[in-house]
Amino acid sequence: LEADESNRNGFQHSKAKKADSVRHTKVKTVDTEDDDVENLLKEEEEYEEKIDLSADTTGALKWKEDLTQKAAEAFLRQQRSTPNLRKLVYGTAVEDEDQESEDADDELGGLFRVSRPDKASKQKANALDCSKFLVEKPQDWDLEEVMSSIRDCFVTGKWEDDK
Amino acid sequence: MAGGAAGEAQCLSYTGCNFLRQRLVLATLSGRPLKIRKIRAKEEDPGLRDFEASFIRLIDKVTNGSRIEINQTGTTLYYQPGLLYGGLLEHDCSPSRGIGYYLESLLCLAPFMKHPLKIVLRGVTNDQVDPSVDVLKATALPLLKKFGIDGESLEIKINRRGMPPKGGGEILFSCPVRKVLQPVQFTDPGKIKRIRGTAYSVRVSPQMANRMVESARGILNKFLPDIYIYTDHMKGVNSGKSPGFGLCLTAETINGTVLSAELASSPQGQGAAVLPEELGQNCAKLLLEEVYRGGCVDSTNQSLALLLMTLGQRDVSKVLLGPLSPYTVEFLRHLRSFFQIMFKIETKTTEEEHMGGEKVLMTCVGIGFCNLSKTIR
């Protein structure tokens, strides 16, 4: 509890300017004093809030806001993009057909048609018909690590024990 | 007409000129009529291009009784497929695309003809866009053999080489017919035992080919000692109408998988000039990229393998591929629309560290396609 007390003191000290928020913390900590862990967690929350406030006041370092949330979102985005391949292949075809039926409704007053600029999907519809799978990001095959990534694809590489 | 009405009901409709070939091929094999609208409808030069018109004429040649209707601006195409007929044919391909553009589709159709196909194609044998005849010869033919399409008459022969923009090349493609296809279990590519290749040059110094070979070897020798790259310098009438050079490389595994990469010089008067050394090095690196992707089928032939699996006997077929190319992904969607077949797609992460990138295991049950027009002797 002592450690907690000192912790809180330090906290108070650092946030002397923002009396309001500090009082808020104090009240909270007093309420739940019996659980140290919970205390710490709460203080952490408050600490984050403090950063928010300072960011608002200074106007600088705006990118620091919601860093954890941003990281979480980025992670989820990554998760979604790495594949359920089956969904990727067969799932999106239905959407394409929907879009197709939609563009029949692009008429204005039944007489004029709105000519929309080409969307990405439309571009694809009239793109080059070629079966070659182009390498988008070539790796640097002069690097030893890159070279070793395919080393065992060759008969000169390491073989599994059973062969 | 009653027949027309029945066809109307199952007519598939698409927009845009992309994937024209696979749509026409699948329509022909499934016997379903096809309508493609809005072909370059919003471009300054709307409608079908000369190479597409040439492709449609080719489809008309190899079939019997196809009905093809194109509207005045060329933006809408209606195709009611006839029967695959085959026989002795010849076709002048438009030089704006390589012969590979046409040959890829013929490879899909040829095993299902009434008479074995033997066709002479004229045009551009090697360019920067399409898979070259050399690569298709080295990769697609071994793949067809795996499905039981085999025999002496299966061959691609390059009589004359032709480079863009003028072309002037000539090849012979012949393929036997099969009543049914074997299902395949092709899940272990095996290790690469040798690298082969062709360095070709036409209407330039024959030394170009040697320079490409040297630089490509310099990179590939770090992985494997067994490398042989043929130099192919064609002269006179066999060298086509435009100058150029290029390199095709293939990596063969102990289990008969062939992976490929290729590069060609820019067409005369277009693009930046490329040094043969640079081209050789870049091509060797492309082959390493293809090895990194891996799988049992080369990335350009993924769709051919998936088609032959679909058309196989009613049995399970499995094949391990590298990452799916955008062309293949669209092909899978088309296979579903034309044949109501969906593949089981599993991502396989390689356990070992030095075996390249992620692989994809494709599994399906063949639809039991039967070549009814094949004559029995």
From TrEMBL, chain B:
Principal subcellular localization: nucleus
Protein name in UniProt: RNA 3'-terminal phosphate cyclase-like protein
UniProt cross-references to InterPro entries, sorted A to Z: RNA3'-term_phos_cycl_insert, RNA3'_phos_cyclase_dom, RNA3'_phos_cyclase_dom_sf, RNA3'_term_phos_cyc, RNA3'_term_phos_cyc_type_2, RNA3'_term_phos_cycl-like_CS, RNA3'P_cycl/enolpyr_Trfase_a/b, RPTC_insert
Stretches that traverse the bilayer: none
Superkingdom assignment: Eukaryota
Pfam families (UniProt xref): RTC (PF01137), RTC_insert (PF05189)
Coiled-coil residue windows: none
Gene Ontology cellular component list: nucleolus
Organism annotation: Geospiza parvula (Small tree-finch)
Assembly information from the UniProt record: Part of the small subunit (SSU) processome, composed of more than 70 proteins and the RNA chaperone small nucleolar RNA (snoRNA) U3. Interacts with BMS1.
Function description: As part of the small subunit (SSU) processome, it plays a role in 40S-ribosomal-subunit biogenesis in the early pre-rRNA processing steps at sites A0, A1 and A2 that are required for proper maturation of the 18S RNA. Activates BMS1 by promoting GDP/GTP exchange. Does not have cyclase activity.
GO MF entry, a single one: RNA endonuclease activity
GO biological process, one term: ribosomal small subunit biogenesis
Keywords: Nucleus, Ribosome biogenesis
PROSITE patterns according to UniProt: RTC
